[in-house]
From TrEMBL:
Key words of the record: Coiled coil
Name of the protein: Putative myosin heavy chain clone
Organism in which the protein naturally occurs: Panstrongylus lignarius
Stretches assigned to coiled coil: 144-197
Amino acid sequence: PYLVTNYTFDRKDFLIKMYVKGNILKLSIIDNTTSEKWVCSYNSMYIEELTRRTGNYKKFSIFVTMLNSGILRTNSCVRIELLNHRDLIALSDRQKHVTTSPTTEEDTRKYLILIYTVEFDKIHYPLPLQYCGMPNPRILQKRINYLEKEKRRLEEELAQTSCNKCATQLPALQNKIIKLVQDKKCLEDEVKCLAAELGSRYNSAHYTLSKNVPSNMCHEERFHLQEKI
């Protein structure tokens, strides 16, 4: 099964993708504001050992069902949280009734926490995620171009579909086009966010360098310096 949905963690919107094939679980979480991405893959042995260490063992298939319910909010006993490494340490300390000195180091690691609440107990299953940074704008643009071509192809196929096949093929083709348009819109939004971020960084650097130009520098020297910025 393949699951794609939006989820809000601490008033921030994320896109969650979950893919399961055989004994492999793949997760991808994307910040809808910054386009930063975290991913990881887990096999059934890792998941079952993880659940065993918590004292509440679950088979791989059961764990996947629980995670699916947590993402879709279909079971009140299961929910998910997204924590960074410092938050996870604090959570562990609270459970052990100890205190660890906080660190000020920047940490991009995140963990998707599956929380299972049962009578008189609450179990936390932490799934580590690897930080991938922001996507490459060129790759996103290439993907957008592909979606544009695929959209045109499907529209042509839809127009050429014979009347005899319309009843069975028309809904499927329309759904494909809608999905492609949605994917294209998401990628275009990511490109805009990256462009805005790069523009902001450039303007900040330009302002700082211009501000530091000595006041006694002649007009021509200042002009040539700004040309290099």
